[in-house]
From TrEMBL, chains A, B:
Protein name (database record): m7GpppX diphosphatase
One GO cellular component term: P-body
Group of enzyme by EC: hydrolase
GO molecular function: 5'-(N(7)-methyl 5'-triphosphoguanosine)-[mRNA] diphosphatase activity; RNA 7-methylguanosine cap binding
Catalytic residues identified in the record: 199 (nucleophile)
InterPro entries for the chain: DcpS/DCS2, HIT-like_sf, Scavenger_mRNA_decap_enz_N
Similarity-based family: Belongs to the HIT family.
GO term, biological process aspect, one: deadenylation-dependent decapping of nuclear-transcribed mRNA
The EC number(s) this enzyme carries: 3.6.1.59
Amino acid sequence: NVVVILERTPLTEDLVDDIMSPATDYSIEMKNDIYTSLRLFPKVSAGALKSTVIHPATEKHINKYKQHAVFCVRETASDYNNITLPYITSSSFSLQWLYNLLAKKAEVDRIVYEDDDQVNGFMLVPDLKWDCKQTSNLYLCAVIHRRDIKSIRDLRGEHVQLLENIRDKGKQAIREKYQFNVHKLRIYFHYQPSYYHLHVHFANVSYNSPSCTLGKAHAIDDVIDNLKMDSDYYSKCSLTYILKENDPLLEKFKEAGRCFD
Amino acid sequence: NVVVILERTPLTEDLVDDIMSPATDYSIEMKNDIYTSLRLFPKVSAGALKSTVIHPATEKHINKYKQHAVFCVRETASDYNNITLPYITSSSFSLQWLYNLLAKKAEVDRIVYEDDDQVNGFMLVPDLKWDCKQTSNLYLCAVIHRRDIKSIRDLRGEHVQLLENIRDKGKQAIREKYQFNVHKLRIYFHYQPSYYHLHVHFANVSYNSPSCTLGKAHAIDDVIDNLKMDSDYYSKCSLTYILKENDPLLEKFKEAGRCFD
């Protein structure tokens, strides 16, 4: 068994001269008034592909790279209590790596900002997806110090102060450290999150990652407003999220009688 | 002046044989255990580029294709009344094309479903971005018959029936016409919308277009829940959205004393 991944390489500025050279063949597909549509055949270097080969590949590898159907799940408050919460609890995802970070036993050099208050405090670190080089894809995460909030489902009116503290001090730290305009920040939670200890994403709004789509991301300002309107909003509301067909949580919804076929 | 747009062409299945042929040069970038990373140089046809040329181009053309900074605007209810609503009204976007559609004077052959009730009815048509060929990027729009609702800001509790009607009959029509699993649908509004006559987007949830990100899209189920909780929710809430630096609405916010620099 072998997995072969083929990807187009990004079009970078240094390729433009090569592509726009007289040596490049072309065919005209459409011409109308001032608009022309062409197909260009630049020399092979400009048309390079990136490939990753996994050999020998296990079933797990093959499964990971297969395209999976995705489904929208509408989780009511009672679904959370009867399906999602038991699933989270029984899966016992380890948070040791996170507790190491919060206790400064690891990643100490990556801390961008810390408020060490044990009730409303948090630690701000670059997300692993960000190389910290350019702000065009700036991406950081704020992780709270307290350990009693798994996700936005656990948030209540009493946590508004915590959230406003994260939002305001997080913005300020990013403005100061990266000279970044905070009006260009998208600040949000994931639900479902990738780990069950409350954390907040701070990302450049022009960076449209699939992780900030409807059915995955919740703006911190909306969450604060909802809690101010109704302290128990997140214990009562329905939340929509997207699951892959092989996600164990989707299986739990199916077992509970939901049909997604 | 000329605008040249260069894009990689999509990697389609019919290219795989060409790319994986012995004639393709390659260089190995990394090898570690079962993982190998390569750069492939297939023959020029497989590395083709798509290009669009606009010549002669006006300043407007150049401006349209320039990369623009984007900003997050948090619009309070009073911002809507004092800034956004006057802007929408004074800009007087023409809806004639839409009224032609609703009156069946145009695009008649594109109608997928119609409920001709003048209060709760709507027309379902494929979005222009969808070629109607494959359901992998299925994308339709439901346009309401009544003309008194510009956007979600105008929605009140009395409109829940209209929204539920669109959601339920829209899903049913898509299931029947395309044999499409409605659990794979993302159903949402845009705010700000591209035109100010209420319409609903029905898209394949696996199609992550930039138009369904946080700060642009609002799930119809969330909107219905909010209206059921508080009939005046959308006349009171704050809404976050993303504007390009050259958007006239952003200028209005700046004139009102908001700083985005």
